[in-house]
Amino acid sequence: MKHFLTLTRMRIRLTLRNKMFLFFSVIMPFGFFFLFAGIIAKGDPHIVKFLLGPVIAMAVMGSFWGLSAALVTFREQGILRRFHVTPVTAVDMLASSIVANYVLTIPTVVSELLLARFIFHVSDFGNLLSFAILVTIGVISFASMGLVVASVTNTMQETQVLNQLIWLPLIFLSGATIPLASLPRVAQNFGIFLPATYLVWGLQASIFSSLAIWKLWIEVCALLAWAVLTFFVAAQLFRWEPESKIPRNAKLWAAATALPFLFLGVWEHYTGSLLMDARAAYRSIENTDKPDKPGDSDKIYRPTPQSTPAAKPQSAPNQSPN
Fold first, then answer.
1. Contact 137, 227 (CB under 8 A)
2. Can you give the pLDDT at residue 232?
3. pLDDT greater than 60 at residue 289
4. Contact 194/270 with Cβ under 8 angstroms?
5. 3-class SS at 254?
């Protein structure tokens, strides 16, 4: 454990020197925060609270870009080769990278909550336990995806191209930048196959509607399964040396990490529960009757149809014969 903590501290120091990591983990999240809260929401605390989940989700997801770029840079500069001569395994290196990434992401998330509270006067942040669990699982899962990207690319240029191909659908089709309910139906049907959709919705539901963690078990289980799968694949494909060749089946292993959300997307396509909840949440911010107490907004989620009793036919009045 002592060696692992030392390795983690070293990874934190090395990561802080990486400009790309600082951009995607610090500068970009705060830029999106003020864009959404100040311009799109116009400072309305109710709308800021609605958008806070997607904004924080982008801060969590952005860690995969910085982590993959940092790891490829370390391999190109020979830093990983120096670690290889020490009693450090690939699992130790990858796990310490995730822990370091988590330690560096949490201050950004906490700062955004504090800014929402003291600048935009958001008085309630919903269910903080659900929020903390989803942030933790989200950082682990998306950091693991970044490790997979670093394992299947050779140079920084390849990493940036692959990151862009992954990043653009994640932020535009998951509800992170544009509310999922306002997207075209085709985009919504595609978005339910993305892991970012379940992170964005889980954070939004925990903050805006104070949902307990057991009500978000689908999102939690899907992200956990994805985190385990991506970490396992990254450990199998990890390379210390820049000269090491990528295995032939590496990209096939990387593509296999999408299987949990492929199955979940098919299930959501037939049930439509997530899209129904997203539409209900989106309609609620346009409603003038805003929730008065924390937890009142929970009423807008997962509505159950109420049957109205059929009106009894009125019998014709008896007409007495003249």
1. yes
2. 94
3. no
4. no
5. helix
Residue 86: strand, helix, or coil = coil
Whether 255 contacts 230, CB under 8 Å:
no
**How many Å apart are CA 17 and CA 134, to the nearest integer?**
28
Using only C-alpha atoms, the chain has a radius of gyration, in whole angstroms, of: 23
**Contact between residue 209 and residue 301 where contact means Cβ atoms under 8 Å apart:** yes
Tell me: the pLDDT tens digits for 20-29? 777 877 888 8
SS3 letters for 18-73? Answer: CHHHHHHHHHHHHHHHHHHHHHHCCCCHHHHHHHHHHHHHHHHHHHHHHHHHHHHH
Amino acid occupying residue 95: A
Single-letter residue type at 225: A
Q: State mean pLDDT over 243-272.
A: 87
Amino acid at the residue 298: D
C-beta separation of 222 from 261 below 8 A? yes
Domain ranges within the chain, ordered by starting residue: 2-300
Q: Other CB atoms closer than 10 Å to residue 163's CB: what's the count?
A: 21
- Residues with Cβ < 8 Å from 57, sequence gap 6 or more? 138, 174, 176, 196, 199, 200, 203, 204
Helices (H) and strands (E) in the chain, counts: 14, 0
Nearest to 116 by CA among 63, 39, 37: 37
CB–CB of 170/187 below 8 Å? no
Bigger pLDDT: 200 vs 66: 200
How many angstroms separate the CA atoms of 121 and 43, rounded? 9
Q: Which amino acid, one-letter code, is at 258?
A: A
